[in-house]
Design goal:
The protein contains 14 helices and no strands. The protein is an all-alpha fold.
Length: 287
């Protein structure tokens, strides 16, 4: 796919790279499990998503500045651009035109990240899911559409992606509050358990905040009930394998978050745990 491989490094005048990459994610990005011919398209989508996410999460940018930068990406994705600073949006536009995948899966991400620029609290679980429907679900929908899967399976991929998003929010709950004053825990739950956002700044999780986290994990587990149906429902064997791995990683992270304290330190899986979860996921799918 020359469209991807021949593009030189982008001018990052609009971008604010955080240094994060695919290796920092909880899930494999364009791994060897996916068909070789589709991996460049996945890489283009990920680079676009990483660039706009970094803008939204930059603590040094004012909200209006973030929104202006994100809107420039949205315009370029819809109409095209020769601006080197928007090359990642142009790459994605060309990729989606080539594959027939809807640009909606890029625009929805932008919509969510614009919201991140101005919204720092979520009143209810429903509000949080609405955000996840635009910040996480588009990733799964992009992959399913890229592989020519039935759109009826979006309900399962949405559940998986939203579960992964909530897991990530719980992993980063203390850092998001400290750096961005951003709290994704439903405020109605916080009030009900007598927890406050200031609990996120303590050295360890309070009993009240622990109850809120456990409630979020219970809802996430409900999402995973739907998500676990995805791998066997997919026609494409390699995508099924990748989704099985991701499901197993999500399951393991939920176990760890129930046991460990994400306020005291970010709860992550080491390489051994990731490998073990991956093998467990593939075994469930194949055997």
């Amino acid at each position: 796919m020359a469209m991807v491989d021949s593009v030189p490094a982008a001018d990052e005048a609009l971008e604010t790279p955080s240094g994060k990459g695919a290796a920092d994610e909880n899930f494999p990005v364009g791994s060897w499990l996916l068909p070789r011919e589709l991996r460049p398209h996945v890489a283009v989508y990920y680079r676009f998503a990483r660039a706009i996410d970094d803008i939204a999460d930059n603590p040094n940018l004012a909200p209006d500045d973030k929104i202006a930068r994100l809107e420039a990406f949205a315009v370029a994705l819809q109409s095209g651009s020769n601006d080197p600073a928007l090359r990642k949006a142009e790459q994605l536009r060309l990729s989606m035109r080539e594959t027939g995948v809807s640009i909606r899966h890029g625009l929805d991400l932008i919509s969510a990240f614009k919201q991140d620029a101005v919204k720092t609290r979520y009143e209810s679980w429903a509000e949080l899911v609405d955000y996840c429907d635009r910040s996480a679900s588009p990733v799964g929908r992009f992959l399913l559409e890229l592989h020519g899967e039935d759109r009826a399976l979006f309900r399962y991929s949405d559940a998986l992606c939203n579960a992964l998003q909530v897991i990530n929010h719980l992993q980063d709950c203390a850092v998001d509050y400290a750096q961005l004053d951003r709290v994704y825990l439903p405020q109605v739950w916080m009030r009900g358990e007598k927890a406050t956002v200031e609990h996120l700044a303590q050295p360890k999780c309070s009993e009240a905040l622990r109850r809120v986290l456990d409630r979020a994990l219970e809802r996430t587990e409900t999402l995973m009930g739907e998500a676990r149906r995805l791998p066997r429902a997919l026609r494409h064997g390699k995508l099924a394998a990748e989704s099985a791995v991701i499901v197993a990683i999500a399951d393991r992270l939920i176990v760890r978050l129930r046991r460990d304290d994400p306020v005291a330190g970010r709860v992550v899986l080491n390489k051994f745990a990731l490998a073990a979860a991956s093998m467990r996921g593939l075994a469930r799918l194949w055997f």
